[in-house]
């Protein structure tokens, strides 16, 4: 049987101005490259992306299966999510963050918090509006800003400042055109946690400069000593929104369940955009999510026991690469500075092309991350140990033990 090559098509339309210089998401293209390497026989170990490999709790899966087996759960759903899910989010916020939210008006379920980043940007930005984006930080903050017609304005985070923004320096630069400031604590990719008083300082800063402050908060439960919400600060709802997600701490990344929390007036504006983009979330997923939100502290304790074990090996990998790091990191990754004379991209290329181990270069998160690399904790200890062996780490450990 003859095969034919795919036809080459020249599009009849040019790329929209809105798409501009926005590029394909890094992990989209990199995972495609890894798939090609594997197709050629390479056994690539992927320590890059933060997609939990552990399953959700058994009762969550049982709730999905039971609800999906019913005949009355397959139709369109409300754009604001079912009442049970909104109430579950409200109870979860009260139990863990000590924040009281009206389930009817102050919580908007989302198909993942990444969707919320785009919705917020489209709902509040006009062409020319500036948005403060952390460097290093999640690349979607920039792409959503640019797609919405806004102007991305980065603020640098530095290790010697605890990866926190210098609010005084920002104020001195002039903020008259800034409409939104994205923050993300616990911070990805650096693993920095916000000090106890820092959220209050951020709220005062946002109020003074009339900036909408948005905390992207998917890592609140991962290897943290205590969980924090920006909305716990008195007066926060006047100037702040918060995104939370079930992707990380509930092991439901592919289920696409998140929430936007904040004042009703802000959420109603976001809903005006969101309701034109989707037709509601699958009801069995919502019902399963309500069960996930009801999990107790023992669930999170068990999860973090696993991640601590994995982090031990991930740190050994960083040692093998000659990287340096802070031991008090939180979240789902290990972030480390590369040795002098190299950078994150070259370090990651050597790991991938010489040792078949994929780790993430810090430069994809902004210029301030170019001398860093990141390892995900979303692989079993055995896979991390295999990566350590491939990179020569176990041999180094044995040599030290033998006094060589």
UniProtKB/TrEMBL annotation:
Keywords: Aminotransferase, Transferase
Biological source species: Neolewinella maritima
GO terms for MF: L,L-diaminopimelate aminotransferase activity
UniProt gene name: dapL_1
Transferase keyword on record: yes
Top-level enzyme category: transferase
Protein family according to the UniProt entry: Belongs to the class-I pyridoxal-phosphate-dependent aminotransferase family.
CDD domains: AAT_like
Aminotransferase class I/classII large domain segment(s): 42-391
SUPFAM superfamilies, per the entry: PLP-dependent transferases
Cofactor(s) in the UniProt record: pyridoxal 5'-phosphate
Protein name (Swiss-Prot/TrEMBL): Aminotransferase
Enzyme nomenclature, EC number: 2.6.1.-
